[in-house]
Amino acid sequence: MKLEEKTKSIRFRLFAILTVSTIFIISILVIINNIALEFFYTYSKTKIAKEISADLNSYYNGVLQYNISSDIRQVEIKNDIDILIENSNAEIIYCASREMERCVVEIQNSKNVRTIYSNSNTVIKQNESLDNNYIMLISYQDNGYITFIRIPVTQIKESVKISNRILIIVGVIMAFFSGIIAYIISKKFTVRILKLNDITKKMSKLDFNEKAEQSELDDEIDKLGQNINIMSDKLESTINQLRKNNNELERDIEEKSKIDQMRKDFISDVSHELKTPIALIQGYAEGLMENVNEDEESRKFYAEVIIDESNKMDKMVKELLELMKLEQEGIKFNDTEFDLTELIKEQIKRQTKVLKENKIKIDFDDSKKIKVYAQQEYIEKVVNNYLTNAIKHCKTKDKEKKIVIRTEKRKNNKLRLYVYNTGDKLEEAVMEKIWDRFYKEDTSRNREDGGTGIGLAIVKAIMNNYKNEYGVKNYKDGVEFYCDINLR
To answer: Does 383 lie in the same domain as 323?
Structure first.
């Protein structure tokens, strides 16, 4: 059982991954070495042989000629090749070794020879016999001479074997040191994680005395330790309170409280979004039917409440349908070019009354036209949602309430729209959740100004369809929402 636990540990897995990766890389290098090295050697040597053959052809076609035997010998030594030249009568003009003469006869008669390249004046053959493996280039010169150039292959095979041995030795050494490094690194992390694991085990047994110690690194493990300490303190205080009430049912009550909370949250969401307006409509409609209030003013008030709640439900259903359509993604937009400045001015104009009532100052430069390319209807929804959201959360900072709308040209033919409002910063967790449908930062869910909780989800869906960036940033005295819009 101990061995099985060790093989499941992070330390063992990190060691195994690094070791196997090293062995795999060395194996790939050995395979590439076997395949590529010989091929590259053969290719480069054959290319050199062709160049030498062309030089010899140029020499014998020249007007002035001299004895170039010493030059050819230097070429042989430099490139580790053998050269034999015959004239049109099969007489040897140049040959530095009898071995080369034998190879010329062999390449013409042996059964182990295969042709690997051929054109009008050049043939390249390879002798694949085990005891004497070489490549022979046969070139027919313009003056009737025949040039034979032998390229040995046996040497490269030996070189491949030697390099393979070196790679294997290096691989073994690397695997060994990788294992040591993996062990040291994993030990640094796993010791701290195992400590946290021991603390959580004790917490599961309702022992909250031990706390996670904080290191100087202040990394993710330290933050996890801080959260465990916070959770430990909260659980301890809660369980102590429950023990006072009923020690025997301690565990059952703890589980029940969790389930009850989940159920309450669910019921709260559903009842607020759907049941509350239906109940209001039903109640006021029954009041009208039973003539609870006989005066005209009260009946008018009842009717206005019913109409108002109906409009809210209608708006929410339409927004939900719109959101569902947008969340499918891949929908086709009817994009046109329009003036974003005029659109923003129109949205600000619609909110003039609310802005004056809340004494909010709007800062927006409407002096220049900004042409964007998108479906105007959806960009209008984005601007409207950002603006209404800014108005709703705008608070006094430095003795003023302020909303700033600005634009900035970005790369890839995009324009970024910013909407800033003075107010409180958003928590990190909230900055992610605000884009979810029905999420409201205000847990009281005030029916007058709480909205439907769908607006920012629609913005997210529109931006995702356009594959444009969007988001929110915290500043010292407020919050700024942004999104990208396409230019033509």
So the answer is: no
Nearest-angstrom CA–CA distance, 79 and 81: 6
Looking at the structure of the chain, the number of domains it has is 3
Q: What tokens does 141 get?
A: 């010169």
Q: CA-to-CA distance for 408 and 412, rounded, in angstroms? A: 13
- Burial of 149 (C-beta count, 10 Å sphere; 0-12/13-18/19+): buried
212: in domain: no
The number of CA neighbours under 13 Å toward the Cβ of 23 is: 8
Mean model confidence pLDDT for the chain: 78
Are residue 42 and residue 147 in the same domain, yes or no?
A: yes
**Is the CB of residue 485 less than 8 Å from the CB of residue 414?**
yes
Q: What is the mean pLDDT of residues 85-103?
A: 85
pLDDT in tens, 332-378: 889 999 999 999 999 999 999 999 999 999 999 988 899 999 999 99
Single residue among 160, 179, 203 that ends a domain in this structure: 160
Question: Does residue 374 sit in helix, strand or coil?
Answer: strand
CATH of the domain at 26: 3.30.450
pLDDT confidence tier of residue 256, bands split at 50, 70 and 90:
low
pLDDT tens sequence across 22-36 = 778 777 877 777 777
For residue 388, count other CB atoms closer than 10 A to its CB.
17
% of the chain beyond a pLDDT of 70: 79
How many percent of the chain have pLDDT more than 90? 20
The residue out of 327, 356, 371 marking a domain boundary is: 327
Same domain as 140, residue 112:
yes
What is the predicted pLDDT for the residue at 445? 43
Using a cut of 0.90, tell me whether the model's pTM lies above it. no
Structural domain for 152, as ranges: 10-160
- Co-location of 308 and 365 in the same domain: no
Strands (E), 165-239: none
How far is residue 406 from each of residues 232, 383, 391, 420, 425, measured CA to CA in Å?
A: 46, 12, 16, 9, 20
What's the CATH number where 359 sits?
3.30.565.10
The count of C-alpha atoms lying within 13 angstroms of the C-alpha of 279, restricted to the half-sphere facing its C-beta, is: 7
Cα torsion angle, 453, 455, 458, 460, sign: negative
